[in-house]
Amino acid sequence: MMEYDYLKHKKILITDDEADLLEMVTSILEQDGFKAIKTAGTVSEALHLCKEWKPDLAILDVMLPDGNGFSLFEQMRTFTEAPVLFLTARGEDEDKLTGLGLGADDYMVKPFLPKELSLRIGIILRRCYKGENPIVQLSGSQIDFDRAEVIKESARFPLTAKEHDILQALYRNAGRIVTIDQLCEAAWGENPYGYENSLMAHIRRIREKIEENPSKPVSLITVKGLGYKLVLAGK
Q1: Long-range contacts of 208-217 (CB under 8 A, 24+ apart)
Q2: Which residues contact 81 (CB under 8 A, 6 or more apart)?
């Protein structure tokens, strides 16, 4: 279990040319509560995802069909500072020194213990994103993501896991439209189809907690035909 719940919302990219390894690492992360996980089997796929999806952590293999992880890392560093963990069968000291010398956050050798991988990922995320999760100010309330609570008129209203997931997705894109599909994926994972009605029900309950007048929302706005938008206080 991750020490800080907000870390499970971080987007993680896994790059490896072995499908079984990708499936295993994805399973490990999902068991830890991570929902935003994507995989790539080549350097070109990984670069595309890094530019378009913008992961918060990348797990890279060294040996890839169209290049190597060291070169991939250097290309990534031209446009992102996301932390990187090398996970590879290349366990020679020279390779470790190369990876760490480039600026990678950690270097693990296959085979590995799933628990050790989870611990190392947790250490990297806590170090890189420490103190990122503030209390969010809305027009008539506050969201405390660390405690999963809404504070309104000195009262505290607990958030369910799904409400927390939806609000996190909205907060990460505060002031911008988040589509219905994106919110469903944030709350229900990679196969979000068919959850639109459930999403609407969760939005209603969230408004009851965060809005002074839920029937006339000013913080969680519906953008007809597109999705929803979270408006922060003073914005």
Answers
A1: 209/141, 209/150, 209/152, 209/157, 209/159, 209/163, 210/138, 210/140, 210/141, 210/143, 210/150, 210/152, 211/139, 211/140, 211/141, 212/139, 212/140, 212/141, 212/152
A2: none
φ/ψ of 112, rounded to 5, equals: -140, 160
Per-residue pLDDT tens for 104-136? 999 999 999 999 999 999 899 988 887 666 688
CA trace torsion 168, 117, 76, 9 (10° rounding):
0
CB-count burial class (<10 Å; 0-12, 13-18, 19+) for 127:
exposed
Give the residue, 57 or 225, on which the prediction is more confident: 57
Residues with Cβ within 8 Å of 4's Cβ and at least 6 positions away in sequence, in order, are 126, 133, 146
Q: Is 180 in contact with 227 (CB distance < 8 Å)?
A: yes
Torsional class of 8: left (φ above 0), alpha (ψ -120 to 50), beta (otherwise): alpha
Q: Are 138 and 233 in contact (CB under 8 A)?
A: yes
Q: Residue 225: CB partners within 8 Å, gap ≥ 6?
A: none
pLDDT per residue as tens digits for the range 84-102: 999 999 889 999 999 999 9
* Residue 189: band (very low, low, confident or very high) from pLDDT cuts 50, 70, 90: confident
